[in-house]
């Protein structure tokens, strides 16, 4: 009898040097550098370069990469037309996947092993995903598309494309740190999906589109949206304990608590909590923050012994909400950031590529006769 591992749990699917997690100690590293140090000292674009090219860029390399990303922010007018044709009530993730899949038709170089193709494809995807997300966010409400600006940083430009106003430096820096925190997280479902696609030597736009499709599933992306729904359902601090006790008794999941790998508080949740606190000082207190603090306190009391503690989604939704971003766009921002990690794994996969072809355990019958249509009841 062959061993069977549902969901490939515990089965190594690749060798990688992109990122590392110690779930018992709450450690997350990108290319060996702690996530805390990157959030303090780096930027999303510098972190993206580190992930994709396995080195911190020199000053000249970072200036070139930053300028190239700024120059490639614009999207083809036919991509914009495609976005305009999508249903206004659709989910932004579906619009993002459709637009990214179409990008490859405009940049059809199939020599994915070539370093210049890998560099330019990475630049285009990191540059254009924020433009696509912002474009759909505005167009679905009947608002005019705001073209990107090359003189703004990536996070600043994204917030500008959403609102038409250049944001204060502090909220823009908060968003930039959020992008760092979401940029990579080892062999999760969307990364594995992208690797399977990459192993066929598909172009990088198809690779990223397949990863986006996987991230749309509620068991992977979207949990930060559900946290906001949960907070609104609870409504006040005094209703937190009865809500949680009821869900625990009914064996129902409490959104934002628990992680498949971390047995302590997710290190990204620590950072996002600090960002939420900074935004509360900048914009004024948030009723959401008081409720989520109580959820963490009660959760630690009732579930902490089981290693169920806040994950990355627990505070990220509150941060995005305070930045004025619509709830159903949260996962799209996750995808904007995670593109850096997907691309890093794509390039790593190509260095020693072998197409994924796992086995299955057949449980069907044998020797089944074909019954003519006239004899079927």
Task: Give the structure's gist in a few sentences.
This protein is mostly helical. The chain has helices spanning about 35-40, 45-55, 60-70, 75-85, 90-105, 115-140, 155-165, 170-180, 190-200, 205-215, 225-235, 240-250, 265-285, 285-305, 310-320, 330-350, and strands at about 20, 25-30, 35. Strands 1-2-3 form a 3-stranded antiparallel sheet.
What does this structure look like?
By secondary structure, the chain is mainly α. The protein has 2 domains: 31-218 and 328-351, Citrate Synthase, domain 1, CATH 1.10.580; 223-322, Cytochrome P450-Terp, domain 2 (Cytochrome p450-Terp, domain 2, Orthogonal Bundle), CATH 1.10.230. It is built from 16 helices and 3 strands. The chain has a 3-stranded antiparallel sheet with strand order 1-2-3. Strand 2 (27-30) and strand 3 (33-34) form a beta hairpin. The model has no long low-confidence stretch (mean pLDDT 95).
In helices, the fraction of residues equals 55-70%
- Apparent shape: globular
CATH class of the largest domain: Mainly Alpha
Q: What is the beta-strand fraction?
A: under 5%
Helix and strand element order = EEEHHHHHHHHHHHHHHHH
Q: If classified by CATH, what would the architecture of the largest domain be?
A: Orthogonal Bundle
Give the overall average pLDDT.
Answer: 95
| Overall number of structural domains | 2
Distance between the termini: 36 Å
Kindly state the number of beta strands: 3
- Tell me the CATH superfamily of the largest domain: Citrate Synthase, domain 1
């Amino acid at each position: 009898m062959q061993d069977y591992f549902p969901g490939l749990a515990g089965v190594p699917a690749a060798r990688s040097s992109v990122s590392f997690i110690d779930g018992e100690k709450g450690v997350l590293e990108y290319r060996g550098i702690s996530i805390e140090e990157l959030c303090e000292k780096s930027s999303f674009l510098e972190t993206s370069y580190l992930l994709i090219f396995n080195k911190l860029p020199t000053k000249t390399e970072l200036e070139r990469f930053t300028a190239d990303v700024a120059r490639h922010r614009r999207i083809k007018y036919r991509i914009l037309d495609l976005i305009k044709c999508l249903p206004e009530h659709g989910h932004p993730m579906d619009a993002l996947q459709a637009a990214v899949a179409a990008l490859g038709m405009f940049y059809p170089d199939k020599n994915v092993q070539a370093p210049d193709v890998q560099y330019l494809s990475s630049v285009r995807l990191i540059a254009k995903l924020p433009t696509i997300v912002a474009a759909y966010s505005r167009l679905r409400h009947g608002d005019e598309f705001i073209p990107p600006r090359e003189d703004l940083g990536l996070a600043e430009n994204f917030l500008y494309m959403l609102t038409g106003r250049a944001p204060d430096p502090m909220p823009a820096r908060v968003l930039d740190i959020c992008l760092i925190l979401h940029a990579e997280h080892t062999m999760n479902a969307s990364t594995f999906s992208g690797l399977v696609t990459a192993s066929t030597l598909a172009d990088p736009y198809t690779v990223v589109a397949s990863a986006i499709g996987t991230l749309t599933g509620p068991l992977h992306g979207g949990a930060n949206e559900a946290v906001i729904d949960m907070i609104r359902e609870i409504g006040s601090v005094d209703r937190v304990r009865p809500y949680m006790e009821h869900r625990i008794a009914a064996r129902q999941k409490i959104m934002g608590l628990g992680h498949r790998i971390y047995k302590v508080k997710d290190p990204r949740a620590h950072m996002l909590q600090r960002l939420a606190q900074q935004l509360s000082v900048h914009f004024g207190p948030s009723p959401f923050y008081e409720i989520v603090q109580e959820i963490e306190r009660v959760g630690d009391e009732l579930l902490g012994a089981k290693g169920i503690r806040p994950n990355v989604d627990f505070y990220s939704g509150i941060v995005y909400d305070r930045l004025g971003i619509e709830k159903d766009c949260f996962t799209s921002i996750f995808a904007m950031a995670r593109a850096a990690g997907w691309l890093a794994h794509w390039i790593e996969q190509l260095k020693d590529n072998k197409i994924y072809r796992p086995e299955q355990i057949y449980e069907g019958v044998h020797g089944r006769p074909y019954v003519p249509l006239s004899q079927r009841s």
